[in-house]
Specification:
This protein is of the alpha+beta class. It is 30% helix and 29% strand. A five-stranded antiparallel sheet has the order 1-3-4-5-2. It comes from Agromyces terreus.
């Protein structure tokens, strides 16, 4: 996966048009033999890894990557979920559509879709993922969303859908282990 990431960050993304935070970033891929599982379709874990590469493409094209490097910040995934509709097979070409959905007081939310053309040429969604991301400082600590907005501006997409806010709250882990509910108790 490091090869795909470097290929996009260092070469391919820099040759594509710049994007605003409200644009949908489209990143093209092909299913490789190393992406397959024993069922000969793309492994479910690989979907998340390729979504990472597509997010880096979006970061480069929106200019966020440059600012992050200047300020010694880096992005991390706090939570993610994916739903599968169809399997991707060996050598199939697909596009990941990435967009910023919005933010709350702690995180930025993104939607990413695996898309291929259907028989009639219309886009068909093969999988859809949602990501809750945060930015950290290399010196330690979390970059507050207010500081992100100051550095990058706020997307004009408006507020988050209520179900996304609920999901973000439901999947967030408490600050300490003692506060965490457990099914193992």
């Amino acid at each position: 996966m490091i090869f795909r990431t470097l290929l996009h960050v260092l070469f391919l993304s820099r040759r594509k048009p710049d994007l605003s935070h409200d644009d949908v970033a489209r990143t093209n891929f092909i299913t490789l033999p190393t992406d397959l599982d024993v069922n000969r379709h793309m492994n479910n874990g690989v979907y998340f890894s390729i979504m990472d590469v597509a997010r880096f493409d979006m970061l480069v094209r929106t200019g966020v990557w440059r600012t992050m490097r200047e300020r010694a910040w880096y992005p991390v995934v706090a939570s993610e979920t994916i739903t599968f509709r169809k399997s991707l097979q060996l050598w199939q070409r697909f596009t990941i559509e990435s967009r910023i959905m919005g933010y709350d007081d702690k995180a930025v939310y993104l939607e990413q879709r695996y898309v291929r053309p259907a028989a009639d040429g219309t886009p068909e969604i093969y999988a859809q993922g949602f990501i809750r991301a945060r930015f950290l400082r290399k010196t330690g600590g979390v970059v507050p969303v207010s500081e992100l907005i100051e550095a990058f501006g706020a997307p004009s997409s408006g507020g988050l859908p209520e179900w996304v806010e609920r999901w973000g709250a439901d999947v967030a882990l408490p600050a300490t282990r003692a506060e965490a509910p457990s099914i193992w108790a």
